[in-house]
Amino acid sequence: SNCLDYQTRELEIRYGQKKQTDSSYQKSYVHALNSTLCATERALCCVLENYQTEDGINVPKVLQKYIPGQPEFLPFTKELPKDSTSLKAKGEAKTKGGAAPKLPATGELADRTKK
């Protein structure tokens, strides 16, 4: 549902304007959508899972009209950081859970004293 600027007035969420001292200045608030029937994050994850490529995201035709310029493709603009958790997870997946914990040999007690 479209809440217009009902929620954004309370939160002071405005767009593209710096502070004005002119007496005729009028605040412009963004309009908010209330996603009561759809978890927005889950819907976005579905779009990313189905339309993501190595170079960016293919924008579905039905969503293109909601993006300025109506692009068919949104390229990634930054490289993935070298120490990214995504890259670490890929490495751990190859070793099936990472390194195995060090356990004492059979019959030995674990030394738990602080050194």
Automatic annotation (TrEMBL):
<feature type="region of interest" description="Disordered">
    <location>
        <begin position="78"/>
        <end position="115"/>
    </location>
</feature>
<dbReference type="InterPro" id="IPR045864">
    <property type="entry name" value="aa-tRNA-synth_II/BPL/LPL"/>
</dbReference>
<dbReference type="InterPro" id="IPR002317">
    <property type="entry name" value="Ser-tRNA-ligase_type_1"/>
</dbReference>
<dbReference type="GO" id="GO:0005524">
    <property type="term" value="F:ATP binding"/>
</dbReference>
<dbReference type="GO" id="GO:0006434">
    <property type="term" value="P:seryl-tRNA aminoacylation"/>
</dbReference>
<dbReference type="GO" id="GO:0004828">
    <property type="term" value="F:serine-tRNA ligase activity"/>
</dbReference>
<protein>
    <recommendedName>
        <fullName>Seryl-tRNA synthetase</fullName>
    </recommendedName>
</protein>
